[in-house]
Amino acid sequence: MRTTNKYIAVAVGLGLVTLSACGSSSDSAGGDSKTVTLVSHDSWAVSKSVIAEFEKKSGYQVKVLEDGDAGQAVNKAILTKDNPQGDVFFGVDNTLLSRALDNDLFQSYEAKGADQIKPEYRVDEDEHRVTPVDTGDICVNYDKAYFSKHKLTPPTSFDDLIKPAYKNLLVTENASTSSPGLGFLLGTAAKYGDDGWQDYWKKLKANGVKVVDGWEQAYNEEFSGSAGGKKAKADRPLVVSYASSPPAEVIYADPKPATAPTGVATGTCFRQVEYAGLLSNAGNTEGGKALLDFMLTKTFQDDMPLNMFVYPVREGAQVPEEFTKYGPQAEDPETMDPAKIADNRDDWVKSWTSLVLK
Question: What is the pTM of this model?
Answer without folding.
Answer: 0.85
